[in-house]
Amino acid sequence: MKISFQPMQHAINLIEQIAADPSDPRHAAATAVMKEVQEAMAPPVLKQILDVEKNDDLDVDDHAFMDRTDEGVWVQTWSWVSRECVPELYPDEGEPVPSDEENPEP
To answer: In Å, what is the CA distance from 84 to each residue of 15, 51, 89?
Structure first.
């Protein structure tokens, strides 16, 4: 299972290691968590549907999470916010370096 957000990927890797070792006392709990994570993963069809809408300000990972409701499905997306809108996130950096891309990947 691959998740793009690095701290989340580290957590998933750790849970997978525990779930793979039946002698680990946390094995049953880790296996249950992995089942819940897999059930929360959005199937590729949801990414295809959202890609069809072609919203340049949203990006969907190949392994995004989802939340099902009675009326539909919420799908995890990345939303683009220009650094000019959030200068407080770049306090020690000067002007942004020009990029060839309008909206770089997260």
So the answer is: 37, 26, 10
User: Using CB atoms within 10 A of its CB, is residue 3 exposed (0-12), middle (13-18) or buried (19+)?
Assistant: buried
Banded pLDDT at 48 (limits 50, 70, 90): confident
Token readout for 1 is 């299972």
* Contact between 67 and 39 (Cβ < 8 Å): no
Determine the length of the chain.
106
Rounded distance, CA 20 to CA 31, Å?
Answer: 8
Strand, helix or coil at 78?
strand
User: Which residues lie closer than 8 Å to 78 by C-beta, 6 or more apart?
Assistant: 58, 59, 60, 61, 106
Average pLDDT over residues 35-45: 86
Inter-residue contact 40 to 3 (CB < 8 Å): no
